[in-house]
Amino acid sequence: MLTMAGLDPTQTRIARARYERIAPLYDVMEVLAERRFDPWRRRLWDDVQTNMPPGGRILEVGVGTGKNMSYWPRGVEITAVDLTPGMLHRAKARLGALSLRAKLELGDAQALRYPAGYFDMAVATFVFCSVPDPVLGLRELRRVLRPGGAVLLLEHVRSSIPWLGRLMDILNPVVVRLVGANLNRDTVGNVRRAGLEIDRVEDLSAGGIFKLIEAHSVEANGAA
Length: 224
Prior knowledge:
By secondary structure, the chain is an alpha/beta fold. It has one domain: 3-Layer(aba) Sandwich (Rossmann fold), CATH 3.40.50.150. It has helices at 9-22, 26-29, 31-51, 85-97, 134-144, 162-179, 187-193; strands at residues 57-61, 77-82, 103-106, 119-125, 145-156, 197-203, 210-216. The mean pLDDT is 93.
């Protein structure tokens, strides 16, 4: 791993254990939710297809069981990583069933093992709600992207409605222990804190809970 600064191994082990525990049931648990999420996934990957140069390199962080694979663009090099062996096992089975080619690897978003500037684009869906240190993970995306490389995220965040945001705060400790996902992350703010330049944020639902976020990496001097 090329960077370990700020990584908390204990929290990483806890996150891995939570998702390893639910991996066998993960797709069943989200059947109803996917009826809503699936069109949003399609939109996200349509944007990837539109903006990705032929022969480019895409990194998908938190591939999970491979729910995005049906929408992956063709003619590009895709590397997909996940923290959890159980999730990755199911992703590999889906990859084979769809007759797709990609590199599927165990990997931690907080400590990616790829060289700086290696990828043209990074994509994640419902991932930075569960990365133990989301700013560290987003900084890693920035590091492995070429200058100007795009980050496209589909995420759920803390609601902008005051009473609903407070309710999410109250429920968060229980939910994160059960399924690993934080309900009340400020992912838009975390993208900025990571040094990425935000291009667009689109609210997909009332209360601003679900968002499409597009950003890009910048050089140290601020030039794209």
